[in-house]
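Protocol step 4 of 5: obtain the predicted structure for the target chain.
Materials: sequence only (see below). No template structures provided, no constraints applied. The aim of this step is simply to have a reference model before the mutagenesis design in step 5. Sequence pasted as it appears in the construct record:
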Amino acid sequence: EEGRQEHSTYSRTLGDGTVLTTEVVHLPGADLTQFSEGSDRYTLLGAKWESSASTMSYDPLGEPFDAEDTIIAGLEAGNGHSKFEYTYGGKTPGASSICRVGDPVDGRNVFGWGEQPNNILGLSCSTSRDGLFLESDILFDPDWAWSPINQPTPNIDLFTVAGHEFGHSLG
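Step 4 output (structure tokens):
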């Protein structure tokens, strides 16, 4: 399945100038209508983080297995490819609305789990205003057969998808 993964980018500008951007990792044939309606596909954000570091926390609600170590490894792998770095802020169970359109910006960067339409593996959602990122969240679909780090299986490699999504959230 991994070789067939694709990704798409969608953004929407709100009336106050806030830009909501969603990066979606999916398999061919995914239903992406929830992201494409009213969005511009493949938009260069032009946004950046105000400082060179931020904290990313983990909401384990709905995780299909003890995935924290695998996702943190993906986070750390993404840090090596940018001048910006995330530090791990620990668990924040049920503390954030991750990638949900219409929810208020809470200024926290959180990764977690949530069901997605068919063939969507994961997505990152960044919010920016006046050229600066306000927050970036990452959501993985727990319904897929994910494999933890260092576990050779025919399942989808969570480490690789996590690293990919963290790259998007870095900007």
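Step 4 remarks: The chain has a mean pLDDT of 76. The longest strand covers residues 120-129.
Proceed to step 5.
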